[in-house]
Design brief:
The protein has eleven helices and nine strands. By secondary structure, it is of the alpha+beta class. The strands form two sheets. Strands 3-8-4-5-6-7 form a six-stranded antiparallel beta sheet, sandwiched between helices. A hairpin with a 3-residue loop joins strand 1 and strand 2. The chain is globular, with a radius of gyration of 19 Å. It starts with 10 loop residues before the first helix and ends with a helix.
Length: 311
């Protein structure tokens, strides 16, 4: 089973890895610990994401940090001036994990500003009244922004899953040493619950797991809307396939060969969607999605069986 190393939209995972420094596990382990590989969702019947029903990066970050034996101070809210003061104070003690931010308002990135940037996470290195310096894991080390421009992105008005603006995490401290293997094994019950689905408040028409992918296949078969095609080809397929391949690698390392083989098959099918979606071959893409859909239920069964065998 070959892991993937390369570029991809792993912003919160790369940012957390930077914060943990030399004590960080691999990004494959971090991403798997967030729970993101274990499901799919179709929000409101039209927005496809290859992560679990009701999951979001804030939930995933908190899970990974705790499973790895770390703590941090999370804060949010306030006016832009108060947020900048809070950021400056935090930066005086070391780097700060900041996000979600609106990627379309990070003005050092080509093509900005734009309304379709999506959510993003960065590590802020220094901040004063005039300038913010940061490591952006989307290919921009030591990027600089005027403070007011950064605040506009950090307010994250277009990000739906955050309840308050100006979220930051600082003061990272390791309170117990947990090996990656132990953390991964402790994460399995949560992964199984994500795959099982949950009763969570979601927009009407939202679906999870197998049902979400089947409905997405129907949508694609009718002709993929331009905005959905862009989302899938620029983000969804890339991150979804990598997440599943990373999960497969981690499951294999735990000796869960059957679950690992299912996750790897999911990764290969999902990664194979890129070409037909880019070329407009929606019939082929829809057929591949229908092959992918039942594998979420199969992965749930494999993980549930594995957990039952050790209890």
């Amino acid at each position: 089973m070959l892991g993937y190393i390369g570029s991809g939209p792993y912003c919160y995972t790369n940012s957390l890895s930077m914060m943990l420094g030399g004590e960080s596990p691999t990004t494959a382990v971090i991403e798997t610990l967030t729970g993101s590989p274990f499901g799919a969702q179709l929000i409101g019947g039209s927005l496809p994401l290859f992560d679990p029903y009701g999951w979001d990066p804030e939930t995933g970050l908190d899970a990974a940090i705790a499973l790895l034996g770390w703590t941090c101070e999370r804060s949010d809210g306030g006016t832009p001036a108060e947020a900048l003061d809070r950021l400056r104070t935090a930066c005086s003690r070391g780097p700060v994990l900041v996000g979600p931010v609106d990627m379309g308002l990070l003005l050092y990135q080509p093509g900005t500003p734009n309304a379709d940037g999506g959510d993003h996470y960065v590590v802020v290195l220094a901040a004063d009244q005039d300038t913010v310096e940061l490591h952006d894991p989307h290919g921009h080390p030591y990027a600089m922004l005027p403070a007011q421009a950064f605040l506009s992105a950090w307010e994250a008005r277009a990000v739906s899953y955050t309840d308050a603006p100006f979220v930051l995490r600082a003061g990272f401290a390791r309170h117990v040493r947990i090996t990656p293997a132990v953390a991964l094994r402790q994460s399995l019950p949560q992964a199984e619950r994500w795959l099982a689905g949950r009763e969570l408040p979601m927009p009407p028409g939202s679906l999870g797991g197998t049902a979400a992918v089947e409905a997405l296949a129907d949508l694609v078969a009718r002709g993929t809307p331009p905005g959905i095609r862009t989302l899938l080809t620029a983000f969804g397929v890339r991150v979804g396939a990598r997440r599943l391949n990373d999960a497969a690698t981690c499951l294999q390392e735990l000796g869960l060969s059957h679950a690992a083989s299912i996750a790897q098959r999911q990764a290969r099918i999902l990664g194979g969607l890129q070409y037909p979606l880019v070329r407009g071959d929606d019939a082929t893409a829809a057929a591949q999605l229908r092959h992918l859909a039942p594998l979420y239920a199969q992965l749930h069964t494999a993980l549930a069986t594995a957990l039952d065998s050790v209890t």
